[in-house]
Amino acid sequence: MSDPLELTRRRFLGQMTTGMTGLALSRLLMSDLGAAVPPGAHFAPKAKQVLQIFCPGAASHVDLWDYKPDLIKYDGTPLPGPAEVTFQGKNGNLMKSPWAFKPAGKSGKMITSNLPHMAKHVDDIAFIHSMTSRSNTHGPGCVAMNTCFTRDGFPSAGTWVSHALGSLNQNLPTYVSVQDVRGEPPNGKANWGNGFLPARHQGVSLAAQQPLRNLARPEGVSDEADRDTRAFLRTLNAEHAAERAGNDELRARIAAYELAAKMQLSAPEVSDLSREPEHVHALYGTADANPLKAAYAKNCLLSRRLLEQGVRYVSLYCASRASAVDGFLNWDAHKTLKSDYDRHCPIFDQPTAALLTDLKQRGMLDDVLIIWCTEFGRMPTHQVGTSGRDHNPDAYTTWMMGAGVKGGVSYGATDEMGRRSVTDVATCYDFYATVLHLLGLDHEKLTYYHNGANRRLTDVHGHVIKPILA
Q: What does the pLDDT look like over 304-355, one tens digit per residue?
């Protein structure tokens, strides 16, 4: 009888075959797990991409999203309680919204009649009516709504997402900030900067009205010569980087130039809005007689095209700084609320609603999370001597829509006048804890060691807003 432990040629081959089959099966299982939990994520995500729509200037919650019938009832009377002094001084009496609110959708959500196109989407939106800000000043407020810190120098949410999850494409940036024709928001690039995270993760600023230049290969340069030149340049860059090990700015600059080379093929195509059919342009309003609306509509269309091509995080800005020449061009309605918002709302309404419609029709909301932000709210009173509203950091509204979000709901509440958030009070920390959660990221585990501390987007705060999750 042969020894059962004797390693014969036949037994060796048989055991090797069995082992290889097991390895192949385990690899397949790992692939399946990897598909469920992508690299960088902590758990299976509901969303893969983010579209952030930001309206700088403190868009008034009580005139857009947060219906307060008591403002109508007590219009012209003093705000209950002691007299208050806010950002620009003493406040006057309560002032009702210049526009009626109307029920919309199956949910019956009350929304301003000044946003008729956006009203069609309320059943897909989760409103957060109890936001509070750490600042009553636009610059720090905008930065706080983008980075969770009032000071410049901290990474934006888009940068954190880029750092954690990486790119979904090879030829376009991971994070793009789409700028309004009227200029940058308060504190500018700090809103999409990388802070202390690697520089390659900062947002790349684009706009439909500023076509990309100098991306085409010069005439007379063949494909072969172009490839050889790039290969030689890569060798030089590698040697240069090796001599300066640890220089993040250098690595980021090299990566940026390499990405620019790849963008020669992808960026002109994605930014060429003429490829879109006429009915899509009509939906967005890109040929509107109002040049500001047409410009914003083109940016909305550009944002959809960027998301289609796999850009991970897109920040879309509507309005910018105030201009002494052209009047207030952002949502900062201190003096003439009605005329200001009669100008802003039509610019915002149709193009934004069209973007939401377009993403939904294309089935992209299965992967794209949409978030709408502003930096803080506005007072329910008028400013003394004006028909506008002062800053209000104690109450404002944000909303979410798309992948992983329960539509047709409202979370939190302000008091009867909209002066303060009183129910389920929320912060930017809670807001981004929820955004990261939908992307498969635990906001307490997403950290980066800097200057002696493990830094987080949400600092040491924040809870996921679970009632708005699908």
A: 999 999 999 999 999 865 444 444 568 999 999 999 999 999 999 999 999 9
- Nearest Cα residue to 77 out of 341, 417, 378: 417
d(CA 365, CA 26): 33
| Angstrom distance (rounded) from CA 111 to CA 63 | 9
Residues in the chain: 470
pLDDT tens per residue across span 99-135: 999 999 999 999 999 999 999 999 999 999 999 999 9
Considering the chain, what is the average pLDDT of its residues?
Answer: 87
- The whole-number pLDDT of residue 253 equals 59
To 10 degrees, what angle do helices 248-270 and 291-308 make? 110
Non-local (6+) Cβ contacts of 265 within 8 A are 171
CA atoms of 443 and 42, how far apart (whole Å): 10
What is residue 279's three-state secondary structure? Answer: helix
Rounded CA separation 318/122 (Å): 20
Q: What's the pLDDT at 79?
A: 94
Distances (CA, A) of 252 to 53, 159, 202, 233, 239: 27, 13, 10, 15, 15
pLDDT band at 224 (very low <50, low <70, confident <90, very high): confident
- Tokens 């993403």 -> residue: 359
Evaluate the CA torsion angle 335, 341, 342, 343 in order and state its sign. Answer: positive
pTM: 0.84
Rounded Cα gap, residues 369 and 405, in angstroms: 8
